[in-house]
């Protein structure tokens, strides 16, 4: 596959230093500079696939105890943000995955009796290592390797929360990478959900790889390689634009290792401080990011959950944030997860709640 822009000029999504190291020479510096100028002027990258047909393969992943694919998919709004998409008619979750060797795979997930069924489409035949990487990335997104047994024991102690274990709820869908989760979370702050969908859609269509009509999420290098003005103009990210570029450049250069956050030995409080040290991430966004890292100590209050809490527990009457905090304090380290499931309980009566 050859990466091209709209005017058939090669697209080189590398930071300048990496590009020069790989290709060398002043001519390559000029090529990179020319491309950077073209991107700033609004040219959208795409991928031209070879004429050969896509190759289809299948694999499966064993289900953990107390797991529901659909309760995980619809645990929050990530399933409606690309590269995730739900095919309600086929009953599947679709996702493009970028593999470490450069291969791109389109995956469709559906639920079997004892396994998650995965249909994979790619331009080249996947090796066993690549297939295993697909399974690993799906497992990361669906939280298949996390032990929720302690959480389910806690839910069984309360009659109003026993539905959680019975329905296999509790796992929150996340991206294969922390980088993607953080970028998306930045796009949820101080705006409507429709604007979040617009920004994330623009990011994937303009900066993500394209394969067979689908787009992937942009890599840190792709996002780092464009200017703040491009993000403002083409992604419509507003005040978030400098934060997105600065974050992507820190990750792409290796200055910031966000992927280590999923297995960090830091206390939750220390990790919260580290997350909020990223410009553009405040307490609300950090609390939600921590949930996707498996830390549930924070409620991550925003206008939507506040209003929902008023409706569920106070007949619509407004109360203070401290009142909401006290309501869930007895759930200890799981309080953020109890809170979120309490606020979204009505979703679980439907296979496709939105």
Q: Can you give a write-up of this model?
A:
- The longest helix has 15 residues, at 26-40.
- This protein has 16 helices and nine strands.
- The protein starts with a strand and ends in an 11-residue tail after the last helix.
- It has helices spanning 16-23, 26-40, 69-73, 128-142, 149-155, 162-166, 178-186, 193-207, 220-224, 228-235, 241-253, 268-276, 283-292, 303-314, 321-328, 335-343; strands spanning 2-4, 46-48, 55-62, 85-87, 92-98, 104-111, 115-122, 210-211, 214-215.
- It has 354 residues and is α+β, with helices and mostly antiparallel strands.
- It is globular.
- It is 43% helix and 12% strand.
- A five-stranded antiparallel sheet has the order 3-7-6-5-4.
Keywords:
16 helices; disordered N terminus; globular; single chain; two-stranded antiparallel sheet; 354 residues; alpha+beta; 43% helix
Order of helices and strands: EHHEEHEEEEHHHHHEEHHHHHHHH
Shape: globular
Largest sheet at a glance? 5 strands, antiparallel
Structural class: alpha+beta
Helix segment tally: 16
Radius of gyration, taken over Cα atoms and rounded to an integer in Å: 21 Å
The proportion of residues forming helix, as a percent range, comes to: 40-55%
Average pLDDT works out at: 89
Distance between the termini: 36 Å
Percent in strands:
5-15%
Tell me the total number of β-strands. 9
Widest sheet: strand ordering: 3-7-6-5-4
Question: Stretches where pLDDT falls below 50 for ≥5 residues?
Answer: 1-50
